[in-house]
Design a protein that fits this description.
By secondary structure, the chain is α+β, with helices and mostly antiparallel strands. It is built from 4 helices and 5 strands. Strand 2 and strand 3 form a beta hairpin. It is globular. The protein starts with 6 loop residues before the first strand and ends with a strand. One of its GO terms (cellular component) is membrane. Belongs to the cytochrome b5 family.
Length: 80
């Protein structure tokens, strides 16, 4: 696993909101979900519309779904 050294602000993470470059923040960790957009069962729109998914994600997804989805995403680092 790569060493994560860069800390991102929520503003920096929110600038990555296109189909080719989409980041989300869940529980303070920044994930690049660009490669997962086409596979997301709820469609890509929901991932492209918001950045901080902490409470939203955990409300709609079980821990198993979280682990499965996150395996397909790349953790960029922590958001401060």
């Amino acid at each position: 696993m790569p060493t994560l050294t860069k800390l991102y602000t929520m503003k920096e993470a929110s600038e990555h909101n296109s189909a080719g470059d989409c980041w989300v923040v869940i529980d303070g960790k920044v994930y690049d979900v660009s490669s997962y957009l086409d596979d997301h069962p709820g469609g890509d729109d929901v991932l492209l519309q918001a950045t901080d998914f902490s409470s939203f994600y955990l409300f709609f997804h079980s821990k198993t779904q979280f682990r499965h989805g996150i395996r397909q995403a790349k953790c960029k680092n922590t958001c401060v």
